[in-house]
Design brief:
The chain is of the alpha/beta class. The protein is built from seven helices and ten strands. The longest helix is centred in the middle third of the chain and has 10 residues.
């Protein structure tokens, strides 16, 4: 559509890739979940960071040209003073690199407890939940990050998304639910606005991991 020449390569992160880039965009496996709950494209590890995100930020700086840029979308576990994703970025961020955050929803965070209920009954759920509690995480965030080699350092800007309309409720995406029949997205007759329901974006997304929430939203807004 844009008359661009595109080349595809298969690699394990930067292993066997070679070269340097002006820009790297990523939508990695970032979901925190008990092992084996999600398909590989979603499973980020117990904290959502171990499988791809931590190795990426350990390596990526050597593969960017001067003035380079990284853009990615992430789900993080957090407390008021710590954020699992930003902690990794801050730890690895070279001098002269800065970043901006834009939260996907007009509400910054929701209780992690709501997210965790989507995995009740899954193998290893209690142990996984205890690991999150031990780390002191009790909030869930979903945001986009833009990182630039622009001579500045650290976090420069953090903002919320503008309110949007939602017109579809999607069923859970865990492996245990993907195999079940009759779990289909529900197209709503009337879209729901985040101006009226500021947390509806969070709830719609959480319904993809929480069967009870999926049924509730599907019923309420039908």
């Amino acid at each position: 559509m844009n008359s661009l020449k595109v080349q595809f390569k298969k690699a394990n992160l930067f292993n066997g890739l070679g070269g340097k880039f002006d820009k790297i965009t990523m939508n990695p496996p970032f979901m925190p979940a008990p092992a084996g709950v999600f398909p590989l494209h979603a499973q980020g590890g117990n904290f959502g960071t171990e499988n791809v995100i931590e190795p990426f930020f350990n390596q990526c700086w050597d593969y960017l040209n001067d003035g380079g840029c990284i853009q990615g979308i992430f789900h993080s576990c957090a407390s008021q003073t710590r954020d699992s994703i930003l902690q990794i970025i801050d730890k690895n961020l070279p001098s002269g690199w800065s970043y901006k955050i834009k939260h996907v929803f007009p509400v910054k965070e929701i209780p992690l407890e709501l997210y965790k209920t989507g995995f009740l009954g899954e193998n290893g759920c209690k142990k996984w939940s205890a690991m999150l509690e031990k780390k002191g995480f009790y909030l869930s965030r979903f945001f986009m990050v833009t990182i630039r080699n622009n001579g500045k350092n650290g976090l420069q800007k953090e903002e919320l998304s503008d309110p949007r309309l939602y017109n579809i409720v999607c069923p859970p995406t865990q492996l245990s639910f993907l195999k079940k029949k009759n779990l289909k997205p529900k197209l709503l007759e009337k879209p729901i606005s985040e101006e009226q329901f500021p947390t509806i974006g969070h709830l719609m997304r959480q319904s993809r991991y929480n069967y009870g929430l999926y049924l509730t939203l599907k019923t309420i807004f039908s």
